[in-house]
Amino acid sequence: MQQAGVNLTTDREQGVSIVHVNETRLLYPLLSEFASSIISLISSGECRLLIDLSTVTYVDSAAIGCLMDLSREATAAGGSLKLAGVQKRVETMLTMTGAHGVLEVHPDEPSAIRSFGPN
Fold first, then answer.
1. CATH architecture assignment, domain 8-115
2. How far is 118 from 99, CA to CA, in rounded Å?
3. Beta pairing, strands 48-52 & 8-13
4. Using 50, 70 and 90 to split pLDDT, how confident is the model at 3?
5. Which residue blocks in the chain are alpha helix, DSSP H?
6. pTM, whole model, 2 decimals?
7. Which of 39, 68, 94, 96 is deepest in the core (most CB within 10 A)?
8. How many beta carbons lie within 10 A of that of residue 6, not counting itself?
């Protein structure tokens, strides 16, 4: 059985690594590949991370747990992980699970990049 990979693209702007999640649903079984992509960025010294979720219309609790773990990893590496472009339904899930207090959410990419401050 062939496993489909998670569709991610990465850009860099003002010292921030921007990961665009090009999936409408971020859930298992894509999470392990998604997490390892982000972990490898952190391991290579990229610890100012922005996850662009503007394409994502649905996440489950496992995806939220994964994002929170990745945020902790980035913080432990001396950086931070932020979210941008969060759709209403995803934002509701973040609020319901209490993740909203842990994950920093910005309305769009430019404001999120500005929030990191000068590089």
1. 2-Layer Sandwich (3.30)
2. 26
3. unpaired
4. very low
5. 30-43, 61-76, 88-96, 109-115
6. 0.93
7. 94
8. 18
